[in-house]
Amino acid sequence: MKPYDTIMFYCPVCHKKNEHVLYHPRGKNEFYHATNIPEKIATQIVPVTMDCKGCEKSLSLNLEDAPVRQYNLLARVDCSSDYAGMDSWYDWGGDTNP
What we know:
The chain has one helix spanning about 40; strands at about 5-10, 15-25, 30-35, 50, 60-65, 75. The longest helix has 4 residues, at about 40. The protein has one domain. The chain is elongated. By secondary structure, it is mainly beta.
């Protein structure tokens, strides 16, 4: 089996605990919380999309922009495939008066 570590995080919508399994060469089957991830783990994280175990919303996982030497996993709802709604009203590209 490939070596891996697990990062636990909470869904921003339903607040259910989820786990992201991260396969990397130095994995030791250890568990980490999404806040203040060790550098050896954080450097292995690549952006990924997964579904929440609770509400089944699509979540986008990647590293959060944080202070130097602090690595946090950022989980947010992935709306890239959602209906744009009325956003198209603002894309007509003309003068200020249609």
